[in-house]
Amino acid sequence: MFNETPPLQPIRPRSQFHIVDEEQVRQLANGTLEVLSDTGVHCPSEKCLRIYADHGAQVDFDRQIVRIAPDLVSSSLSQAPRYYTMGARSPSHDIALDGTAMFCATDGCGIETIDFLTRERRPSCKEDIAKMARMADHLTSIGFYWPIVSAVDHPSTSPLHELDASFNNTVKHVQSETVMGEELGRYAVEMARVIAGDEETMRKRPPLSLLVCCIAPLGQDKEGMESALLFAKAGLPVGFMSMANAGTTGPASLAGTVVAGDAEIVSALVLIQMACPGAPVFHSFMPGIMHPRTGGYLATTWEGTLLYPIGVEMAHYWGVPSLAGIFATDGQVPGWQTGGDAASSLMLCALAGAETGSGLGLVESCTLLYPEEIVMDSDIYHRVRLEAAGLDTSREALALDVIKETGPRGMFLKHRHTREHLKRRQYSDLTAQTDRLNQLRDPLEVAREKANMILETHHPQPLEAAQQAEITRILAAADREIGGQR
Amino acid sequence: MNNPLPPLEPIRSAYRLQYLTDEQLDQLQEATLDILENVGVKFPSEKALQVFSAHGAEVDHNTQIVKLERDLVFKAMKSVPRYFRMAARVPEYDLQLQDGTTYFTTDGCGVQVCDMDSGKIRPSTKADVGMMARVADYLPSIGFCWPMVSAQDHGGTAPLHEIDAGWNNSVKHVQSETIMGGRDCEYAVEMATVISGSREELRRRPPLSLVVCTIAPLMQDHAGIEGAMVMAQAGIPVGFLAMPCLGTTAPATHAGAVAMGDAEIISATVLMQLISPGAPVFHSLMQAWADPRSGGYVSYARDARSRYGVVEMAHHWGMPSLGACYGTDSIEAGTWQSAAEPALDPLLAGLTSPEIVTGMGLARTYTRLYPEQIILDEDLYQRARTYLMRMEVSPETLALDVIRAVGPGGHFLGQKHTREHIRTSLVRGVTHEFDSNGKYREPREVARQRVKWILENHHPAPLEKAQQDELTRILAAADRELA
């Protein structure tokens, strides 16, 4: 017995707008091109350096610096697909990145969890990923799943255990942000092949994608780039994320941070297109701003939030889909700050036309999992989704006949139109909830209860036994090979 | 000592979102005209009915229902000024309504206060109105003041005491939402004249405006509409606020509620133009939702998508709009709900560009004042204001020379450019403040500290002694006559 996974409810904005105008985007992109051709990026992978060199980039093998001329950037990126599909275990949960909708993922890579039962703070583990995958499977706000925390209890092969926990507990697309290096990459691709069933399906409806972080300023990660190459060759989408921090690893001016971060991302996208022309890639810009007193990374600041939709605009300038920064919060606990941080960046990114975004469910600058936070973030997600959908002004919605029948001083409650439409109006299931004494309940308490209810009752379709066995075999092999080495 | 006058910080959005298409706006306007022509609106005021009759409207004096043909509506609406001035005690804070600039106010009409000293909930008083007027006077986000709570210690003349407390504690424009009835409004006009100095100056630079609620469905309030006529004739801006509740006093569809509320507003606006052509009038529609289980009033449904389309309706009619922001259903300040509900409001208001917007600072569905909430709401406002400014892209901000100098793997902290720009890149509101242990402080605690600081340190220029005396004399007369 298993539960059906509810249909996805992506954000389909009725209007779009540009947060930077064409001239500004051009200025920013020209800045990126100038940095790539004059300053270059550091790439500590011999394999990648050779690909760059073979395709005409200027490579300094000693310093591992790559400089890419503007024409080479353009010709490489012209091969990247603007639209494609990210597959899911269940075909009805495939996500088509076609420019009409925004699909959102959970946050990922958290390192600590508020325990589901004891409510004590502890290091995160594989079981947390499994539980939150089930929760994400149930929530219609979640289009695809990032393993939300780290499987700290599986140190050497944790990224693969994160995939195992994810594929076993959600039918939705899974995106890893931790599979780094060729060894892990090979096992991950093998797992994806098991989920897809065959090579052709894996390419057509890839159930797994990978996000690789660049190293600001202007650096790439050897392990990350090499696993990205493996994924791209297998037809699995790969994206590159810059987390430049204005003031420390990026210039302290916003435009400068955009340029520095964008150059990192574009240099990696170019490499993938050189190695695998036409490979599905995506662009992700999630910078922070330095706290002037501590130098710390701040995810949500008044001005910094603007950088997320600007990242979306840059992705589209380069002709690739975007993974937008949403729901990041520096709030320490679910509360006023986490509630106030989320909605505007999500709305701005949706209106800018983001195809995907991450992510819901963590606090403390994307490091701490409160199980109920994803439920609260989902509430905000749906507010934005409905707001962005525009207004229905059909004859039925205008209800003129009903208004005429009711007239001045009348009451609409008894009208059939009211009964039919009041059911369709969407209310929060966290706020305006009353207890037995008819007192309003605390939405945080309601969210905790809802999270527990989902975990008790939602059990998505499991993997077939043969798939489970195969995944377990792959994991065991990886544990032996990689776990033994490290 | 009086405090200086820091410049106001309205939202000046670099972007505009068209929420409703031109076709949808026409559909909604047609629906309004259909309702006005075929259903009509009840005006329980003999004076108003006579004005309508005299101008050719179809008036049923028994049912008090007025039906307006479209030609009459358009003719009357033609004289509504698209923009006008809402003046302040000091000219620096005059609000010249204009395209692309949005001024916010406080919320108003609260009835309970969480006492700053005891932390207990108690009925609101005139002193609370004065206290919050001082806070509003200080905040650059607040362009004009609504008396935030009711002066319940002054019974029948509470509305006049509220504007007295407003002018005595703020140099900004005051907008009342409670002065109802012809006589009350005559006293209010007299008080406003004291602030302006003369009737001519009052008309030129009105320091007071009035919001009057319509009664859904399709009805006007006797005292409200009679008071509005007095104000309009004196040149004081008046606005009509429809508050249809989906499912009880309005159809359960957004478009139906908008069309019906719009008809209420437009019928009142037409009356103002008939009695005083060219009178400054603004449009405001704030719908709510009936809780299907209790019939209770829900200010924030999850699907609140018609909150900002109505701004475009106002503009489609050629009128300024009083947009609706804030007013959380949370019973406490500083909660997740009190941020999650209004967080989008100032952003979407900025994108649709109403000229004026209410209102920061109340919880429990506009009824309870926590003094620190205005600071928390202001934080959300300032975020939106910042998001809607165009990012500067220039050689200085692109910083290509700095990027070149730092290079791959370097660090920007040592750069002069970083030292110069980091201060403006990070603007802190109530978040990201440290305690003595280096931990982030709770935003509500920071807000509470700020509001206390404002009350201790901010003292706006008082009214001249003669003006104070004159207001006191008028209030005493009103108390004798009306209380």
Concise overview:
The complex is a heterodimer of chains A (486) and B (483). Chain A is an alpha/beta fold and 486 residues long.
Essential attributes:
heterodimer, A: 486 residues, alpha/beta, four-stranded mixed β-sheet, B: 483 residues, TIM Barrel, eight-stranded parallel β-sheet, 42% helix, 13% strand
Polypeptide structure, described:
The complex is a heterodimer of chains A (486) and B (483). Helices cover 43% and strands 14% of the residues of chain A. Chain A has 17 helices and 20 strands. In chain A, strand 19 and strand 20 (368-369) form a beta hairpin. In chain A, helix 3 crosses helix 9 (254-275) and helix 6 (182-196) runs antiparallel to helix 17 (465-485). The longest helix of chain A is centred in the middle third of the chain and has 22 residues, at 254-275. The two termini of chain A are 40 Å apart. Chain B has helices spanning 22-38, 46-54, 70-77, 126-138, 158-169, 182-196, 199-204, 222-234, 254-275, 309-316, 336-340, 345-352, 373-387, 395-398, 400-406, 416-425, 443-457, 465-482; strands spanning 41-42, 58-60, 65-67, 85-86, 95-96, 103-106, 112-114, 121-123, 142-145, 173-176, 208-213, 238-242, 245-246, 281-285, 288-290, 297-298, 322-324, 356-360, 362-363, 368-369. In chain B, a hairpin with a 6-residue loop joins strand 7 and strand 8 (121-123). Chain B has a domain at 85-388 and 469-477: TIM Barrel, CATH 3.20.20.480. Chain B is globular and about 80 Å long. Chain B is 42% helix and 13% strand. In chain B, the strands form five sheets. Chain B has an eight-stranded parallel β-sheet with strand order 14-12-11-10-9-6-18-17. Chain B has a four-stranded mixed β-sheet with strand order 8-7-20-19, with no helix packed on it. The chains are: A alpha/beta (486), B alpha/beta (483). Chains A and B meet through helix 1, strand 1, helix 9, helix 11 and helix 12 of A and helix 1, strand 1, helix 9, helix 11 and helix 12 of B.
